[in-house]
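Researcher: Structure prediction, please.
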Amino acid sequence: MDQLFAEIRDNVQKEAEQLVHRARRVAERTLQHAREEARAKVAARRAAAEQEAGVQRERAKARRMAEVRRAELRQQEEFIERVTAMALERLRSMPREGAYRGWLERVLKAGLTQLGTSDAVVRCNVQDRGIVEAILAGTAARLAEEPVGIAGGVLVETGDGRVSVDCSAEAALRRVMDDAREEVVARIIGDRQAMQQ
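Model: Predicted structure follows.
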C-alpha cells in the first residue's frame, strides 16, 4: 500500500509539474501577445499622433499663408487708395483748358449718346460749369442748377432722374484702378508661383 501511495504521489507530482509547466507556457504566450498588442497600440497611437501633428502643421502653414495674403491685399488696397486720392487731388487742381477740356467734351458727348434722349440733364462741379455750358450750347440738353461734388467730368441723366450715366473723373479712375488691381493681383500670384517652383 505504501508503494501504491508512492506511485499515486509520484503520478500526482508529475501531473502537477506538467500542469505548472503548461500554465507557465500559456502565461508566457499570453504575456508575449499582450506585449505585442501593446506595441501595436503604441505604434498606432504614435502614427495617429504624427499624422495629427502633420495636419496641425499644414493648418498652421495655411493660416500663415492666409495672413500673408490678407496683409498683401491690405497693402495693395492702401496703395490704390493713396494713388486714387493723389490722382483726384491733382485732377481738382488741373487747369481747365486744353487736354482737360477735350476730355470733358468727349465724355459729355459719350454720356449723351449713351443716355439716348434729348431731354438730358447734365450735372458737373463748379469749376467745370462754364466749359459744360459752352459744350451744351445748341443742344437740347440742359445744365442742372446745383453743382455736384465730383473732381471732374459730368453726370448725365434723364429729365426725371431715373436713368443716369456716370461720366465723372471718379468713375473713370475707378475703372483704371480696378484694372490696375487685377494686374497687381496677377503679378503677386505669378511671383508667388515662381518662388514656389
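Model: The CA atoms of residues 120 and 158 lie 5 Å apart.
Researcher: Thanks, that helps.
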